[in-house]
Predict the structure.
Amino acid sequence: MKKIQLAPSILSADFLRLESEIESVRSVADWLHIDVMDGHYVPNITFGPDVVKKLKPCGIPLDVHLMISEPSRWVERFISSGAEILTIHVEADLHIHRTLSLIKELGAKAGVSLNPSTPVGLLENIIDITDLVLVMSVNPGFGGQKFIPRCLDKISAIREMAEKRNPALVIEVDGGIDPSTAGAVCQAGADMLVAGNAIFGKTDRIQAAKDILESALKNI
Ligand code: DX5
Ligand code: ZN
């Protein structure tokens, strides 16, 4: 059976107690999802490379999602700070092929993200050099938003493209993932689930993660 993995998003964690918040998800986190926002590409500001550097010793692979304009200017800093997976937005970079190649050259996994309104066709000429596609199932900027079901068809279309061109491609879904939506996204072809509010918004994080994975596995 296909493996479904989980990337808790620290955007919904208590920033004052980040260390213990990370400990509370360690046993269920395949990756730790870190949302970097610049107040320009998205209407919110979060963390920079120095925070990534502080998180690095936790030992969980850092899945860094750059929601910033001109991401190519920052790729080197985030990778040297400890990003193992670095995802940039296709809408934010005029030379996405060059930036994805740079990420790989610098030794990280290269991810590309699509906003809800962005067509899947933009992946056509880069899917073979991409390790991961991050499908946004909310408009980026904030945790705790409502899942946009239209992304399901996009996930299926990306999985179909990947089967022909890049079978190892990871499809990650981000936004509004909880036990009521995880099943449908995995059925459509996702294999990595980001969850912020549905994990850090609950007191029992382990149970919350189990509930998401159980619902995901029921549908594949
Ligand atoms: C939104 C971020 C997400 C966010 C998801 O812009 O990219 O990673 O943390 O949060 P939930 O799971 O609460 O929708
Ligand atoms: Zn994210």
Remarks:
- The beta strands are 5-8, 32-37, 62-67, 85-89, 109-114, 132-136, 170-174, 192-195.
- The first strand starts at residue 5 and ends at 8.
- The first helix runs from residue 18 to 25.
- The pocket of D-xylitol-5-phosphate (ligand 1) is lined by residues 9, 11-12, 33, 35, 65, 138, 140-145, 174-177, 194-198 (CB under 6 Å).
